[in-house]
From TrEMBL:
<feature type="domain" description="JmjC">
    <location>
        <begin position="105"/>
        <end position="269"/>
    </location>
</feature>
<protein>
    <submittedName>
        <fullName>HSPB1-associated protein 1</fullName>
    </submittedName>
</protein>
<dbReference type="InterPro" id="IPR013296">
    <property type="entry name" value="HSPB1-associated_protein_1"/>
</dbReference>
<dbReference type="Pfam" id="PF13621">
    <property type="entry name" value="Cupin_8"/>
</dbReference>
<dbReference type="InterPro" id="IPR003347">
    <property type="entry name" value="JmjC_dom"/>
</dbReference>
<comment type="function">
    <text>May play a role in cellular stress response.</text>
</comment>
<keyword id="KW-0963">Cytoplasm</keyword>
<dbReference type="GO" id="GO:0005737">
    <property type="term" value="C:cytoplasm"/>
</dbReference>
<dbReference type="InterPro" id="IPR041667">
    <property type="entry name" value="Cupin_8"/>
</dbReference>
Length: 329
């Protein structure tokens, strides 16, 4: 196929994305996307001194996952991040001064493009998910990830949707596990984050004494390179690490009909976590809630979440609700 001809039409691509039960890497689908030029240096110029939050973790690999609750956080500009990641002689001042590059990695993860570029909405059009069969979906519905070598996200599954990930700069290694491996991955809701179920296993260095069943997992390992788009199907577990000195990725979560049911489960989970949390010593909050969760919400608010989730689930035409459930609902 010629360089400028995409291997699939948007309709065909959407069909693949919505039905495929295995991870897949799309090649030659984004060659004409302006977002392909979004390397860290370019983004630093666009952000022009604006600070973003970086999560810092130790490069030494421990037997337990380095959850976000165990990381440090700094506010810094991309310029400061780039200077630090080039291994420039350690600056005695600045946000990264306490963190030696050889010992730490930094990750500006989960950054909503709509939020960090709210004053430059024209940049949203650099991302064209319409090529994947989602017309109107752009950077506005996408998230940005910028990391240094070693930056990683602990192994987890996303409760909602499936995930499309575009690699822009550097390479990332993805360890993917099918939904059928869930029990072998020792799932936990602590730290609690709405929509994420974490694994207790550090898949990069598993503690097989504590987690013997992990031996039964089947890892699908993908090295994602710039210009490639990875499809992570619904409920596939993933551990992601940056391999190169600087990595930039952009992703978008595609909503699915099955999310209605997942929202009910998540609302119940939230209610339970907050109820147990409120009975705890209030000083222990940081151990429970993932930093992405601002605070434990009240019982009343949690009931509202649950009510909304349940009513949306029953309104959904595709929800296969057993007869008895309907009559007693």
């Amino acid at each position: 196929i010629g360089e400028d001809v995409k291997p699939f039409t948007p309709e065909k691509t959407k069909e693949i994305v919505m039905s495929l039960q295995q991870p897949a890497v799309f090649c030659n689908m984004v060659g004409d996307w302006p977002a392909l030029h979004w390397n860290a240096k370019y983004l630093s110029a666009v952000l022009d001194g604006k600070t973003i939050q970086f999560r810092l973790g130790l490069k030494t690999v421990d037997l337990v996952p380095q959850f976000e609750t165990r990381c440090s956080y700094v506010e810094a500009t991309l310029e400061e991040f780039l200077a630090w990641s080039c291994g420039q002689p350690p600056c005695l001042s600045g946000p990264f001064s306490c963190y030696e590059y050889s010992k730490y990695w930094a990750y500006a993860d989960y950054k909503y493009i709509a939020r960090i570029f709210e004053d430059k909405p024209e940049i949203f059009q650099d991302i064209r998910w319409s090529d994947f069969g989602f017309p109107g979906r752009s950077g506005k519905e996408s998230t940005l990830w910028i990391g240094s070598e070693g930056a990683n996200t602990p192994c987890h599954l996303d409760s909602y949707g499936c995930n499309l990930v575009l690699q822009v700069q550097g390479r990332k290694r993805w360890h993917l596990f099918p939904p059928g491996d869930t029990s072998f991955l020792y799932p936990t809701r602590i730290p609690y984050e709405e929509s994420s179920v974490f694994s207790k296993v550090n898949v990069a260095k598993p503690d097989l004494k504590r987690f013997p069943e992990f031996r039964n997992t089947t890892a699908h390992v993908v090295m994602l390179s710039p210009g490639q788009v990875l499809l992570v199907p619904r409920h596939w577990w993933h551990y992601v690490e940056s391999i190169d000195p600087i990595t930039v990725s952009i992703n978008s979560w595609i909503e699915l009909d099955s999310d209605h049911e997942a929202r009910v489960e998540e609302a119940i989970t939230r209610m339970l976590v907050c109820a147990i949390k409120s009975a705890e010593n209030p000083g222990d909050g940081d151990v429970w809630l993932n930093p992405t969760e601002v605070e434990a919400t009240s019982h009343e608010i949690n009931l509202q979440y649950l009510n909304k989730a349940v009513s949306a689930y029953f309104k959904c035409p595709k929800a296969s609700v057993p007869e008895q459930a309907c009559s007693s609902s």
